[in-house]
Amino acid sequence: MNKAAWAEVSVRTLIDNVAVVRSQLRKGVKLCGIIKADAYGHSLKEFSKMLKYHRLVDMVAVGRIPEVEKIFSIMPDEGVDMLVLGETEASEISAACRKEHFDTGRVIFSVYSMRQFADINALGIKIGKRLRVHIRTDNWITGMGLSYREYLENEQLIHKADGVDVCGLYAHLYSSYSGDREKTRLELEEFDEFVKSMDPDYRNRLTIHVANSAIIFTFPEYAYDMVRFGAAMYGLTCYDEGRLKQAMKICAKIFDVKEIDGAAPLAYHSPEEAAMRKRKIARVMIGYWDCPLLLTQKNVRIGVKGKLYPLADDVCMDNLCIDVTGAGDISCGDEAVILGEGGMSVNDVLALNGIEDIHSDWMCMTAGRLEKIYVK
Length: 376
Fold this sequence. Notes:
elongated, TIM Barrel, alpha/beta, Lyase, Ornithine Decarboxylase, Chain A, domain 1, 9-stranded parallel sheet
């Protein structure tokens, strides 16, 4: 490939990771793949195309309506159902429904409050469609969603509305990524008691889901009807004990190798005293704009020919300098691995920079100009 920098995404790894997730679950549990935030940096456009051909999941989840519209522009006539996880106002839904390729039959909206529920119901009646929704619940009375008590108090009203089709209900347990498994277990038990207290007729109409990537590997017995997984699909940290593999590999081509004087500046400022020595550097055309959170960390190592090398200085907009002092086998045209197989893993970056595991998806954030190439 004649490219300065790119990100490779392994289709085989994605397929294998989904298989690992399925192996954790009882037969019949549906899979909802999280593809919000540009598919965790893996390219919403390319990932959607890949899903179209491989049918890895039963449903996908995005964060906002513009992501739904982008998927419709890629696959206007077919594809899996899409759950919008973010709170969406009736006015946003109304505007989207007026667009040519927006198919409300393939979209499910999240309801966070009874006020929002009433507005969406009124919109459905107005346009003559029963808009599909999942109820977002929360175990905190001040949480992001209906409290369990609030849902139960409004259960009949919710399920007898004329403008909405309530086809699912879910919760998101933030404790599941904290490492406090006892707290997560107690919250899951509380959610289970809530589910058991529902009217059986209404419960049987719903797709219930609470398990995210972490819960799939720590408490798979709480899978209910569907699980939501993003980190696990992309091979990021989720208590899987090494069973998942990172799907993304960020690469750049070395275009310059030279010996430099210790006083020569490599970035926007003069070198620190500790760097005032003769060094050998290799340059690649990639910068903090391409991987904003990864390449602004202090402890980053770049893989070249199976060895890890430190940065020679801070990363600039389009200039990453690797300190390859002592290496005699590195030349122009060699591949430098910024993240992934042959370089540092996401977990390596987290550990070296003291970042909590919950933020593993930060490392995959990439700019749109960094081309994503899906490889078999």
